[in-house]
Amino acid sequence: MERPKVVLENNDAVYEFYRKHQQPRLQAKGAYWLLSRRFQPRITYAPGARERLREFVSRGRPVLISINHLSQLDPYTVGAAAWRSALRPIIGRTRVLAKDELFLEDKLRRRIDMMGGVPVFRGKDHGLRAVNAAGQQMIDLCAERMAAGDSVALFPEGTCNLVDPAEVQSVGSGIGHIAFRAKKLGADPVLVSMGLSYGPRGDASVEPTEEEAKSASFYFGMPIPNLPTKPAEITRIARDELQSALSGAVAAY
């Protein structure tokens, strides 16, 4: 299937492509392994969380992975953490939401496609009204992929936190709608919160360098297997759980 150009005006073709796109699993696993060698993240878990997450993964429950967003390097350090964590078995079967501009350059797009990327047209870039229809398609795509057994990873803050790296910023409602629609399609997603810390930062508006991003602290909260039936309630839980995980990552750094 021909890869469509990732521009907002072409969103119908874009999401039709990613609705069917399949990652090369062996290649994805190799890439995540290399990232783990490069960034060497440190992984900790809430008490009992590792065992519960392994259980849900082994049972084939789709996982909705929520991560706080600090830097343009996050997709790479998160990939490294996935390899070193209980998420390793679902590498190659996880869709990762990423801003559309990352799909413009062909070489980078092929790399992101291989790692499971799905483009997101953000309101801050194109205007809220302009991206509404594309946003609904993206949510439907994620729900359908989860109903088919895939997992989904996203940064629910929607943009890098350049204010306070120890405090989760406003969380968009998309995470709640993805889980809600996945449940309507018969999926039973498990919410997993990954807190990420690059350590104390003198100026939060200055992103860490690649060297500073090494040995990042990741903390997995306890998986939430029974989510509410309303998107707003799911979003509220996602925000609270992500803050708890972030606090754990900061404490463990």
From TrEMBL:
Source organism, top-level taxon: Bacteria
Mind telling me which residue stretches traverse the membrane in this protein?
none
Q: Which residues form the Phospholipid/glycerol acyltransferase domain?
A: 63-199
InterPro entries (alphabetical): Plipid/glycerol_acylTrfase
GO MF, one example: 1-acylglycerol-3-phosphate O-acyltransferase activity
UniProt keywords (A-Z) are: Acyltransferase, Transferase
**Per the UniProt entry, what are the Gene Ontology biological process annotations, in alphabetical order?**
phosphatidic acid biosynthetic process
Has keyword Transferase? yes
Xref: PANTHER family: 1-ACYL-SN-GLYCEROL-3-PHOSPHATE ACYLTRANSFERASE
Protein name per UniProt: 1-acyl-sn-glycerol-3-phosphate acyltransferase
Which lineage is the organism of this entry classified under, starting from the top rank?
A: Bacteria, Bacillati, Actinomycetota, Actinomycetes, Mycobacteriales
